[in-house]
Amino acid sequence: MNTPHQPQPTNDTAATAQAPSKPLDVEKIRADFPILQQEVRGKSLVYLDNAASGQRPKHVIETIERVYEHDYANIHRGVHTLSQRSTQAYEDARVKVQHFINAESEKEIVFTRGTTEAINLVAQTFGRSRLKAGDEVLISTMEHHSNIVPWQILRDEIGIVLKVIPIDEHGAFSLEDFKAQLTEETKLVSVMHVSNALGTVNPIKEMTAIAHERNIPVLVDGAQAVPHLAVDVQDLDCDFYAFSAHKMCGPTGVGVLYGKFKMLKSLPPYQGGGDMIENVTFEKTTYAEPPARFEAGTPNIVGGIALGAAIDYLQNLGMDNIAAYEHELLEYGTQILSEIPGLRIVGTAPNKASVISFVLDGIHPHDLGTILDNDGVAIRTGHHCAQPVMDFFKVPATARASFAFYNTKEEIDRLAEAIRKAIKIFQM
Ligand code: 7TS
Question: Which of 37, 190, 228, 243 is the most exposed place for a label (fewest CB within 10 A)?
Fold first, then answer.
């Protein structure tokens, strides 16, 4: 039985079922997000920086508060009540993640600090144990630095070769482009599901099928996909899938590496320490089964539990409903911004998630970002940790508006109005 103080959504299998398709009640949803109810520089806040990090509903904030006020203790080691409660809630969150991405078992869910750590974990375990000099890891031009640099570190350490799928002027690549980069030496494909800088959605399922025909495992950076699409790792059939809680209504400092159990079981540990061992003597240590093998030390306990609460919230809305609504916002935003003279959208792939990157004639994105902030409109400006994308499009940076399910068309109008105002200021 739950006491009133226990982290509530620990037993709700009901919440794991997708809600039937229905339009979102966005006004009601917005009321769940305290941070959105404020003015910035005298204007009501328009938060359009969701690709960098999303905001949290009260349900998640209250879960964090409730755990710290009533249930918190270290996990996996105490026989006392609080430790058992915390352990239960943390492991329940793992099961929620499992159902959310339709993994076969909760043992396939490794908690990490985020997407970055998840990819580094694969580079340091799979990479170091399976790859040798001359083996190729295939990534794409649009990758976030977190799916470039870990492979470069490995390249410098053991001499792997980094190969890159080129992109076209829309910021996409075809399956033919992908196939053309596969060789006898390709030993891992590591690609993003959705691009943070361009919004492009990549054909992961088809890519995985092609890679698997050649026995090449596939790692997917799902940081920008999991918050916006219904992700089914069994359907995608990928070997690894990485994502971060803070982009999907959860807290910072926690994320997930999904790995097929057989794959995880075959890998050496990532870091050594408490919780990841079976037995330790000075002569010999044996390691725990996955996922514990990859979770050395005290983890982000409350973060993991709060990620479970975020998943409850998203599932209650329904990922398909979220995707449909955000697609409407993307179409509306694309149309409204395209009408602004001198504005060019960077990233025009046919299949996009709710990200609009753009440049304006004669105005540096950073200047635009500052002027927009004066109007209460928060966007990201810069290279978005995807410098090769900026190089490809020959721009130093872009301005990026990224939408979440709590954004509205009126907010997109506010963005467009603020951009037009900025243009006027620069023309004076
Ligand atoms: N992969 C993708 C596709 C991302 O968008 C990000 C973060 C990461 C990996 C890294 O995630 P982390 O949680 O480990 O930091 N993207 C962004 C962004 O677009 N603006 O700020 C962070």
Answer: 37
